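Open question from group meeting: does this chain pack into something compact, or does most of it stay loose? Before anyone orders reagents, we agreed to write out a predicted structure and look at it together. Recording both the input and the output here so the notebook holds the full record.
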Amino acid sequence: MQLGTFPAPQNFLRRNRILSGLSIAVLVVEASENSGTRVTASCAADQNRDLYAVPGNVTDKGSWTPNTLIKQGAKLVATWEDVWEDLPSQVRLELETEAGLESKADAPASLLSEPALRPDEAMVLEVLHADRSLQIDEILENQLTSSEVFTALFELEMTGRIRSLPGKNYVRAL
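Structure tokens returned:
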């Protein structure tokens, strides 16, 4: 297909194949059973591209393709972070560099400036790691009272700086 080709229906299949071929991954949010998005997802699978899908209500016709793709092995996602975290680190690094968004290891991605941490929050955040979780008992071993730790954990989780995991485990957010 040449640049400037008229968007005629007979060109959609080729266009979808080209789009998926140029992509690192394909994310399907909504698509009916016979949509072009389903064709794009099929092309992506044939081209060994990562395939992600956002689940939808089973009674909604627009959820047929994403729900079916999930059943067939597409990665289920709920937020953009699910896709971002799944991308190979080299791809994330290249995208950050291209966008001029080199991230600092300690700072979460945000468009707003981060409010300053209180001393107890800073102490708890310093103990946590992004690559391994700590159980609440390990966090409580610091020089803070249990109420200070629980308050700091709550505030840090509400601001997206940490995540709580099952079993009262906590990890620093990426």
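Observations to bring back to the group:
Strands lie at 25-28, 50-53, 75-76, 134-135, 162-165, 169-172.
Residues 103-107 have pLDDT under 50 and may be disordered.
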